[in-house]
Amino acid sequence: MKNTPTLASSRRRFLNQAAALTTAAMVPYTFTASRVAAQSKSERLRFALIGVGGNGTRTAPVGKEYADLVALCDVDARHLSHGNQLLCDGEADLYADYREVLAREDIDVVQISTPDHWHTKILIEAMLAGKDAYCEKPLTLTIDEGKLIRKVQKETGRVVQVGTQQRSSFNRFNKALAIIADGRLGKLKQITVGIDAGGWSPEIPIADVPKGLDWDRWLGPSPPMDYRFLKDANRDKFYTNCHTHFRWWYEHSGGKLTDWGAHHIDIAMLGIAAAGQNNDPVSVAGSAEHDVEFKDGIPMLNNRYNTARAFNLDVDFIDGDVVMNIRHDVDNGILFEGELGRIFVNRGKLVGKPVEYLASKPLPEEAIAKVYRGMPIIGNDRPAHWANFIHSIEHRTLPISDVHSHMKMLNVCHLAGICCRLGRTIHWDQATEQITGDELAASMMSRPYREGYEIEV
Length: 457
Description:
Keywords: Oxidoreductase. InterPro entries: Gfo/Idh/MocA-like_OxRdtase_N, Gfo/Idh/MocA_oxidrdct_glycsds, Gfo/Idh/MocA_OxRdtase_bact_C, NAD(P)-bd_dom_sf, TAT_signal. This protein is an alpha/beta fold. It has two domains: 7-164, 3-Layer(aba) Sandwich (Rossmann fold); 167-199 and 250-443, Dihydrodipicolinate Reductase, domain 2, CATH 3.30.360.10. It contains 15 helices and 19 strands. It has helices at residues 7-19, 33-37, 54-63, 77-88, 98-102, 119-128, 143-156, 173-181, 215-219, 261-274, 353-356, 367-371, 381-395, 403-422, 439-443; strands at 45-50, 67-73, 93-95, 109-112, 132-135, 160-162, 188-194, 229-232, 237-240, 281-289, 294-295, 298-299, 310-317, 323-327, 333-338, 342-345, 350-351, 426-429, 434-436. The strands form four sheets. The protein has a nine-stranded mixed β-sheet. Strands 3-2-1-4-5-6 form a six-stranded parallel β-sheet, sandwiched between helices. The N and C termini lie close together (8 Å).
């Protein structure tokens, strides 16, 4: 990554580059807290959706309850057309290049719902352009990208909500954290995180790029590769290295470990903190299975999915009093086991004796509000998560899923992925945020960017 002297110069350079994409001259964007706080109900925030695929079209309708969706951006013309009709009755401004969106002075907020490998670059440039952002998880593709995002967030003061909406689930996940915080489990000893098996594919042939898809721009920072697609008519399935299935390629994502892992490992680490225990990780060890061979952490085949299909990993923490086991072959969810009892929570249920005891001994009235950091509770799950984002914009405070706490959790997911790829224990120093004692593993904390798609701050 190229370093430049000041954040201000980076912001000026970005705005100058973006201005060249439009016919009208752009001026530096100034978006102040007072502008948000002074808005009446008829002067709502205006937001743009960047990435109009599945996650984008699921989350943007929630955002529309709180802000006006005025622009859509995607490198696939089919997504733009479908999203425009579905979300905006055909009235949105449409873009193929996100920089044109960020250059618009009248857009206050962006929702970033692109594939994982694009998150960091777009988010950093959005913050430099003066935008607050709701960015889907996982926030980054690497550990070092997270350090960069956190640096820019601190320097710009932008509000960034990560789309880990389980942090805004009050009837299950926050209730589970409140049970733990109230001492109902005692000291935690074991946490089992079930995140299901990863994707599998046969050999996927090179195929013609679909009409309307800008494949080069879809790849963006990722290494150059051929578009691949296979339709399995017998099983009504398809396999590809693009839409939907990008997460099964290390070039674009981290597989299940950064997919469901970014949700459930998050809750697990919040549970450790809620119990009053130290959740600083020190090592990740275990085993994993892939469908391709690896050499020095690099997959040796490029014609099939390459992220881990199966895994059984243990995360140790600095105090040594609790172990987190991450695996594919148990129920999806989080099992907390403590000295006094155990509970299991996922998106469908919260069960265990301590939950049953709530009927006779309810939690203190403020218990859930306390684990939600005392912020207003409006709705549940995604609606509450967006409401929290808007509240944080109005008050210029960190949202419930801020980039700093998110990255501490996500770094565990990344360390687990490096462990899987190298097949050995990975040691971590939380104080310096560095992998220790393993030069190759440490080199995997970052990645090169394709020419023309570098991140500059």
